[in-house]
Design brief:
Blueprint lengths: L1 H28 L1 H20 L6 H7 L2 H9 L9 H17 L3 H13 L5 H24 L3 H14 L4 H17 L3 H13 L5 H14 L5
Length: 223
């Protein structure tokens, strides 16, 4: 829906123009003839600050255009005004961009902010639950980067309990748990998690390559 993306991109400026027209109409013809213009101006301006331009980010992320995604984030002037689910997405994307730039400290801060905003019921609650799982998985990977295996295990187990959005994320979670168990010399558990990851048949090159590399030596482990 290209027109909708265009509207979202220029929603604030459309609202300002409508507001100016409403004021002009109000002065010239009175309040009621300008009422509809005031209403649409209010919807556009309030929508810009409460919902923001987050819809525009999806396309950039799918194309791997991190610079484009960053520009959209930078256009959010007051993130504290975003409604709770949208604000959570905002901080998740910020965390993802930080991870892509290997700015792990900032990534952890933003992902934890996103985590604190998650929750809800119904269909939206189910979507937020999956997002919570993916978020916890990323925090677990950040803990792995810092060699904090205890914290990493806690986050990853919580991610699996919360639910992950697809088999690629599930495979990544089980692979990380397998590595943690092997590091703890719990080889039987490490093999079990490895088999679970492999059974998911992930197609992401990085995850598939990790499975190939682990398969070379995991069968030689005791347990």
């Amino acid at each position: 829906m290209k027109w909708l993306n265009t509207f979202v991109k220029f929603r604030l400026w459309i609202g300002i123009v409508l507001l100016a027209l409403a004021i002009f109409t109000n002065v010239q013809a009175g309040f009621w003839p300008s009422f509809v213009l005031y209403l649409f101006a209010l919807i556009c301006i309030v929508g810009h600050f409460l919902i923001g331009p987050m819809r525009l980010i999806q396309g950039y992320m799918e194309e791997g255009d991190m610079e484009g995604a960053k520009k959209v984030l930078d256009s959010v002037w007051f993130p504290a005004l975003l409604i709770k689910p949208i604000r959570s997405v905002y901080y998740t994307v910020k965390g993802n961009l930080d991870m892509a730039n290997q700015n792990y400290e900032s990534a952890e801060v933003n992902l934890k902010k996103s985590q604190s905003l998650m929750g809800g019921g119904g269909i939206l609650g189910d979507q937020m639950k999956q997002a919570e799982g993916a978020n916890k998985l990323q925090l677990g990977m950040l803990a792995m980067q810092k060699s904090d295996f205890k914290q990493a295990e806690s986050y990853i187990r919580a991610a699996i309990r919360a639910g992950l959005p697809d088999k690629e994320n599930e495979a990544a979670a089980y692979l990380q748990l397998s590595s943690i168990m092997i590091n703890k010399r719990e080889f039987r558990a490490g093999k079990d998690y490895f088999r679970k990851a492999k059974a998911l048949k992930p197609t992401t090159p990085q995850i598939a390559d990790q499975i190939k590399q682990m398969e070379k030596y995991i069968s030689r482990m005791p347990g």
